[in-house]
Amino acid sequence: MPLTPEQQAEIDALRATPRATLRAVSEGMEAHLYRAHEVLDHGFVRVIDYMGDDAAIVQAARVSYGAGTRKVNDDSGLIRYLMRHWHSTPFEMCEVKLHVKLPIFVARQWIRHRTANVNEYSARYSIMDREFYIPAAEHLAAQSTVNNQGRGATLQGDEAARVLEILKSDAARSYDHYEEMLSQDGQQGLARELARMNLPANIYTQWYWKTDLHNLFHFLRLRADPHAQYEIRVYAEAIARVVADWVPVAFGAFEDYRMGGVTLSAKAIAVLKRRLAGETVTQEDSGMSKGEWREFTEIWG
């Protein structure tokens, strides 16, 4: 169960007592406020608070650029201009605070984005819940033979069953031993900060994660990408759906220029110009490495 009864009661109470405000409000985001969007088997993402909307991006840009923005016909055009030309500061005027429940190994990937304020559940002070991420069978895969940090073919039959059983039994045994070691129920045992070292990386933790829209877009560009690890990608996809309702114009520009666009190197541009001129270009005379050429041809043929 992703939400505890206490958390659900808190959400119901908060949503039952709305207050009038003079600050900018995004109707799309209001629909998400406090609601938990379930992710994986026990995880969730929920919006705790936010600041700003599409209009806040425009407002900040017009303060910064002044008369120069009068050439832009409307707010949508200005936001697309900002995204197209990598003007990041106006997007930093919007912020969001999320409550996320996620496996520890996903959290360790996530925390590499060092552009947010984070406060995580402390296993020094509290006892961790017996909740582990156990992949569905379709997400059990062997190591990729072409990518050292990716997955290959999906495990089948007896091999999938064997791996699942190991994951489940190891998680349960580790937690049993964690409970047995704790200083509780009259035994001296270990302090919580020491007993936690025996817990597996697939146990769930929780944190509050606050960031601005510019850095959130950077997170989504990397983690909502099809090449990202599935377990963090589904969190990014859940967040992306929320952001699409929060700042629809900015998110549309982000999808167009960042998620749907590509960045070309000087060598790639030169190759395209030669191709357009009718020249046949090979990897050997392109000036690109084999890896660069492979990525180039995956897009351009």
UniProtKB/TrEMBL annotation:
Positions with a binding annotation for dUMP: Q109, W110, I111, R112, E120, Y121, S122, A123, R124, R196, R223
Keywords, sorted A to Z: FAD, Flavoprotein, Methyltransferase, NADP, Nucleotide biosynthesis, Transferase
Entry-linked CDD domains: ThyX
Signal peptide: none
Gene Ontology MF terms: flavin adenine dinucleotide binding; NADPH binding; thymidylate synthase (FAD) activity; thymidylate synthase activity
EC code(s) of this entry: 2.1.1.148
Residue positions of the active site: R223
Reactions that this protein is recorded to catalyse: dUMP + (6R)-5,10-methylene-5,6,7,8-tetrahydrofolate + NADPH + H(+) = dTMP + (6S)-5,6,7,8-tetrahydrofolate + NADP(+)
One of the GO BP terms on file: methylation
Database matches in InterPro entries: Thymidylate_synthase_ThyX (IPR003669), Thymidylate_synthase_ThyX_sf (IPR036098)
Cofactor: FAD
Pathway membership: Pyrimidine metabolism; dTTP biosynthesis
Cofactor: binding comment: Binds 4 FAD per tetramer. Each FAD binding site is formed by three monomers.
Binding site for FAD: T89, R112, H113, R114, E120, D212, L213, H214, H218
Enzyme class, spelled out: transferase
Family matches, as PANTHER family: FLAVIN-DEPENDENT THYMIDYLATE SYNTHASE
Family label: Belongs to the thymidylate synthase ThyX family.
HAMAP family in UniProt: ThyX (MF_01408)
Function description: Catalyzes the reductive methylation of 2'-deoxyuridine-5'-monophosphate (dUMP) to 2'-deoxythymidine-5'-monophosphate (dTMP) while utilizing 5,10-methylenetetrahydrofolate (mTHF) as the methyl donor, and NADPH and FADH(2) as the reductant.
Subunit structure: Homotetramer.
Protein name (record): Flavin-dependent thymidylate synthase
Biological source species: Gemmobacter lutimaris
Gene that specifies this protein: thyX
